[in-house]
C-alpha cells in the first residue's frame, strides 16, 4: 500500500474535498469544510495590541492593550521603566507601627501594619531572639538579649513546675548553680527540706505577695548541724519578694530558714516567713551565730508570723540591721536578738532594730537576756551581757501579752518607740540592763509597768511618757541609775523603787538598790494613787526637782512614800504650789505639824499653840508599824532564812532575799501595829551571821531640810517635843509673821538651823530694836580683852563699859566717857569714870 508521500499532488483544494477519518471504530470520509467548521479563518488585531484570553474558562482570544511603562516593537515587548531595585529606593525613617509591609497572604498580595507584623514574630515556634541586641534601661552598653537574660534566670528554665505539688528544690539548686539570680513567678513552688543553698552568691527574686516557697516534706538530709528547711551558707545571699511558708502541718524540730555562719552578708527584703512549727527551733528566719566574724546582714520590710517560737532570731552576729519589718502572732517573740552561749564568749555587736511593728506575740522585741550564766536555772545579773552595742528605735509594739520591748545588755540606746496596750503580764518595756539609755519613748496603757527597770545598773531613763500603767517606772534593785525628766500620767504609782527586785516568781536579781537619782520628773496621779514610793529601805537616793500633782481627787500627801532612812530631798513641788500650806493640828493631844514627805518647804498661816511635833505624812500614818528592816550583815552560806520580829506590837511579817549565800535585803509582807521602842528583828536559817535592824514608823531623815514660812507667829516647843525640836538656846522658839525657820534632821531629831530669834531680839516698825530674854537675865559677855562698846553714827569710837577687880587706874586703857565697875567693891572704890586720856590714866572713882 502506497504511503501518503507516494501519492500525486493535488492541483487545488476545496471545501468539498474529502479526507479519510477514523470515527466510532470505522474509517469514514469527511469534507474539508467539516474539518474546519468552528475554526476562525483569520485573526484581525489593531496595531500595538497583543492577543490573549482574559475571561474565565476557555474562550476566543481577544486583543490586549499595552499599558503604561511597556512598549511593543515588532515582536518584542519591553518595559519602559528601570527594574525595581530596593537598594535604589530613597532612604526612609525608622519604621513606625502604622507603616505598611508587603506580604503574600492567602494567595494574594496584602499590606500589613509594621506593628502587627512584628508582634506576630513572638508566636512563631523556633525563633531564636538571643542574638538581638538591646541597651538595659539606664545603661549605655549594647548587649545581646541572651546576655541580658542571663542577668537573672527563671527557675522554670531548670525544670521547675511551680504547681505547689512537684518538688522544685532540685531545679532551685540547679538554677543557683548557674550563678545568676533566680527569678520566681507568681506561683507556689514546693521546696522540700533540707534545701541547702551554698556557693559564692545566691539571689532569689520573687513577685512580692505572690511568690510562695512552701515545704512539702522534710525528707532530705542536709549540711546544717541542726536540721533546717532551707539552709543558706552562700557567702552572700539576697532574697526579695518571696513568701517562705514552712508548712504548718510539718512539726519536725527544724529551723525554718537559717542564715548559717558561712554567709557573712545578706539582704532580705519584702519577704514573709511563716509557719515554722518546731516547738524548739520554730523560728521563721534565723541568723545563726558567727561571732567574731565581721558580718553584714540586713532584713528590711519583711513579715514574720505564725511561728512556733520566734518570728526572727538574730544570734551572735555583728552589724545586723532589722528595719521596717512586721512580726505578729508568733508564739514567743516577734523579733528576738540574743545568744545564750554558756561559754560566755559569743556576743552580738552593733545591732540595729529600727522602725518595726510587732503585735500579738508574747514580747514584741527582745534584745539580750538577764541571765548572766546563760544556764538554767538562771542567775540574774549584768555581769556577762550578750549584746554589746545596739540601737532600738522608732518601733511600734502593741497588744503583746508580755512586754512590748525587752532590753538586756550593755550600751544599748532605746529611743522613740511607741508601745501601746502590752501586757497585762508585763507591760510596756522591760529594762534589765547595764550602761544603757532609754529615752523619749511613748508608753500607753501597758499593763503592770510602763518601764520595768529592776536590776539595772548605770542606766538613764529620761524623757519617756508613761500613761495608764499600774506602775509608771519601776527602778527597784538598781544601782547608779537616773530617772530624769519623764512624764508619768494616770498611773497608780508613778515611780517605785524596791530595795531588791525579783522576777515575780520569787527569784531576786542579786543586788540591792543604791545611788538612785529621781530628778525633774512630772508625775500626775489621781484617787488612790501615789507619786514616788521607796520600799524596803533603798539607800543613797536623791529625789529632786520633781513636780508631782494629785489632781482634784488624789491625796497630795501621797506624793512621796519613803520607807527608807537614806534619801535626799531638794526643790520638789506638789500640786504646782511652792508655798504648800500646812497648819498644826491636834493629834492625840499633841499639836502636830504634818507635812508632805516630798517637800522641803511649807507654809504655816496659823497656829493655836506651840508646835510640839513635826512629822511627815508617812511617819504619822505608820506610827507603831514596821516600815523597813535594814540588813547590817548579810552573813554567809544561807539557802533559806527566816525573819522574826519581836516587840510590843503584833501582826508584822517579813521575808529575806538571799543571793550567793548572803541575805541582801528584807521585804515587809505585813506591817503590823502597836510596835514601839525595843522592837527587835532576828534572821535565822541554814547560814550564819546575818543581822538587821528594824524601824518602827519613820525617823527624821538625816540631813533632811524643812523650811517653814510663817505667815503668822508660830511657836515651836523644845522640852517634850517628839521628834525633839532642838535649837542652840534650849528654849522654845517663836518665829514672827513673815519670817522663815529652817529645820534640819540629825540623829532622829530636828535642829533649828536658821531662824529669826524674835524671842531675844525684836526689831520694831520705828526702826528701834528690843533685846530681851524669855526668862532670866540678858547677858553681855565680850571675849577676853574685849569690852561692851557704845557707839553712834557720829562717834564710831565711842566709849566702853568694863568690869574687873581692883582699881583700873594705871591698869585699864579706855577712851574718855568709859565706865569701870570694881567687883571687889568698897566705898569710894567701886564705880569709876574715865575723864581724860585714852590710856590707863584719867580714871576717877565716883562711888
From TrEMBL:
InterPro entries registered for this protein in UniProt: Beta_helix, PbH1, Pectin_lyas_fold, Pectin_lyase_fold/virulence
Spans through the membrane: none
Domain of life: Bacteria
Domain Right handed beta helix: 351-498
Pfam families: Beta_helix (PF13229)
Protein name: Right handed beta helix domain-containing protein
Annotated source species: Acidiphilium multivorum (strain DSM 11245 / JCM 8867 / NBRC 100883 / AIU 301)
